[in-house]
Design a protein that fits this description.
By secondary structure, the chain is α/β, with parallel strands linked by helices. α3 packs parallel to α4, α7 runs parallel beside α8 and α9 crosses α10. The structure holds zinc ion.
Length: 279
C-alpha cells in the first residue's frame, strides 16, 4: 500500500453514497445508515479523500444528498435530475429541485447531474434538452456549478452548451467520454473534465490520450461510486476512497507525482464548487 504525505488531499467530485447504502426513500436516515455512511467517509479519509460531492439524479436522491451534506462536514451536495428523468413528466420534480435551491443552503454547491443521454433506446431528446436547459438556467440563477452528464450525445450536448459558454463559468463534464475536440473546446472555456475509473480500463486509450493532451490543469477526479469501479476492482462496488486509485493512475500516465496530481486536481475541484474555504 502506498504511503501518502499527510498534506495530500483529494476530493471525490462525483459520488452517490445514497446508492452505496441502497437508500431510496426520503425518510430520515436510520442510525444504521448513518453508521454505514460514517464508515464510507472514514475509509475515504484513510486514503486522503477529505471531501466528497454527493450528486443527485432524482428528486429523492437530491433531497438525500442535501441531508448527508447537512450531517457530515466533509460532504457537499449537488441537486438535479439525470436525463433519464426526462422520459416522464418531470415538472413537479423540477419544482422540488428549485425549492431545494431556493432554500439557499450553503451545502448545495452545484446543479446536476443533468444533460443528455442517448445510450439506451426510448429516450426523448427534445424533452432531455428542455430539462437540461432548465438546469442550466438554475445554475446561473443560483450561481452554482453545473455537473453535466453526457453519453452518446456529443453533438447535441455541444449545441446546448455552446449557447451558454459566455455565461457559465463553473462546469464539469462528468465521466468524460467525448472526443478530444470536445475536450479542447470546453476546457478553452475554462471548464473541467471529470476523470474517473473508466480511464483505467484497458480499451480506453482515447481517454488516456485526451488527459495527456489536455493536461491535469483541466481535470477533476471522481469515482461515481458505487458505479464505474477502476480496473483493479472491476465487477465490485466502487467507493469514494478509490479517488486515490484514479489519482495514482493519472499520475502514472502523465508522468507526474501523486502529490502534484492531488494538489492540482483538488485546487480545480475547489474552484469548480467554490470550496475555497475548505482547510
Ligand atoms: Zn453519477
Amino acid at each position: 500500500m502506498k504511503k501518502y504525505d499527510s498534506a495530500v488531499q483529494l476530493i471525490d467530485t462525483h459520488c452517490h453514497v445514497i446508492h452505496m447504502i441502497d437508500k431510496s426513500s426520503i425518510q430520515a436516515f436510520s442510525n444504521n445508515e448513518i453508521q454505514e455512511i460514517r464508515k464510507i467517509l472514514h475509509q475515504a479519509a484513510l486514503k486522503n479523500v477529505t471531501h466528497m460531492i454527493e450528486i443527485g439524479t432524482t428528486r429523492i436522491d437530491s433531497a438525500l444528498a442535501l441531508e448527508i451534506a447537512k450531517l457530515f462536514e466533509q460532504v457537499s451536495a449537488v441537486v438535479g435530475m439525470h436525463p433519464h428523468e426526462a422520459q416522464r413528466d418531470y415538472h413537479k420534480d423540477l419544482d422540488y429541485i428549485k425549492k431545494l435551491l431556493a432554500s439557499h443552503n450553503q451545502k448545495i454547491v452545484g446543479v446536476g447531474e443533468c444533460g443528455l443521454d442517448k445510450h439506451y433506446p426510448g429516450y426523448n431528446i427534445t424533452a432531455q434538452i428542455d430539462l437540461f436547459k432548465a438546469h442550466i438556467e438554475l445554475a446561473l440563477e443560483y450561481n452554482k456549478a453545473l455537473v453535466v452528464h453526457t453519453r452518446d450525445a456529443q453533438d447535441e450536448t455541444y449545441a446546448v452548451l455552446e449557447q451558454y459558454k459566455q455565461d457559465l463559468t463553473r462546469v464539469v463534464i462528468h465521466c468524460y467520454s467525448n472526443d478530444l475536440q470536445f475536450a479542447q473546446a470546453v476546457t478553452s472555456w475554462g471548464w473541467f473534465l471529470g476523470i474517473g475509473g473508466t480511464i483505467t480500463y484497458p480499451k480506453n486509450n482515447l481517454l488516456r490520450d485526451i488527459v495527456k493532451t489536455i493536461g491535469i490543469e483541466h481535470i477533476v477526479l471522481e469515482t461515481d461510486a458505487p458505479f464505474l469501479p477502476p480496473q483493479t476492482i472491476r465487477g465490485k462496488k466502487n467507493s469514494p476512497d478509490h479517488t486515490s486509485t484514479i489519482a495514482e493512475f493519472v499520475a502514472h500516465i502523465t508522468d507526474r507525482s501523486l502529490e502534484h496530481v492531488a494538489l492540482v486536481s483538488t485546487r480545480n475541484a475547489k474552484k469548480l464548487f467554490n470550496l475555497e474555504q475548505l482547510a
